[in-house]
Amino acid sequence: MVSVKLGPANFSSCPNGSSQWIWDVLGECAQDGWDKASVGLGLLSILCFAASTFPQYIKACKTGNMDQALSVWFLLGWIGGDSCNLIGSFLADQLPLQTYTAVYYVLADVLMLSLYFYYKFKKRPSPWSARINSLLLFILGVACTTPLLRSARSGAAPREVFRGRTLLSVEPGNKPFTEKEVIGFAIGSVSSVLYLFSRLPQIRTNFLRKSTQGISYSLFALVMLGNTLYGLSVLLKNPEEGQSEGSYVLHHLPWLVGSLGVLLLDTIISVQFFLYRHAAPSSERQPLLPS
């Protein structure tokens, strides 16, 4: 995780006993129990996402059929959504934990796609391999430089006076979107759409194969848990000074849809794991040559 050193001068604008380490490391002003719970759930979500990919890496190395088990459109939709999520989080001034989580998303996606194309080109060499490797390296570079840009910007960013969470607030606190935030919001909306549609090719692949062999269920189980914790961490965060609950949710809506909205589709994939748990892939149950 990238450390964001904001200095004691800026910390003085974060009153009410905020945790110093949260400010120094994450750049967030955790001033009450809601904020600290938001940070805690956000960190837990990162751990879930970090742990989710390793079982699939191990499964891919053991079975060697990752290119058959996972849909390439699922992986492309996933990395497309994560890339838009990263860019949108930066432009729309989302919570620091959202940006850090988005960085890890992209890094994990690059490794997952690398494994997919490794096993695919290992069986069927292609002249496209060099171009695909270059594209993955470019995405990797963008993911690594984005948090550095955020760090430079956050050092001079003024902090608002703290206002506690007030549910069902009737204050006229509709925070207007800046031009930069509108662009980030639009990119974040594209990200949520890509997240939703990325699951459909994988659901179709599992249905056609009548099998989930080669896929680690831990990948989807931990992603579901991580998305739940991630969404809760955003919802528990206190709004800014003068901002109502509704305005706060609106500003974070694409990222909430992207995290909580895919839970239904991941539940369908979970049901497929249960239905096909004893089934062999269709290619193993059919003759090699058509009759």
TrEMBL record:
Belongs to the laat-1 family. It is a multi-pass membrane protein. PANTHER family: LYSOSOMAL AMINO ACID TRANSPORTER 1 HOMOLOG, SEVEN TRANSMEMBRANE PROTEIN 1-RELATED. This is Lysosomal amino acid transporter 1 homolog. It comes from Ovis ammon polii. One of its GO terms (molecular function) is L-lysine transmembrane transporter activity. Keywords: Amino-acid transport, Glycoprotein, Lysosome, Membrane, Repeat, Transmembrane, Transmembrane helix, Transport. Its main location: membrane. It comes from the Eukaryota. GO terms for biological process: intracellular amino acid homeostasis. The keyword Transmembrane helix applies. Pfam families: PQ-loop. InterPro entries: LAAT-1, PQ-loop_rpt. The lineage of its organism: Eukaryota, Metazoa, Chordata, Craniata, Vertebrata. Amino acid transporter that specifically mediates the pH-dependent export of the cationic amino acids arginine, histidine and lysine from lysosomes. It is found in: Lysosome membrane. SMART domains: CTNS.
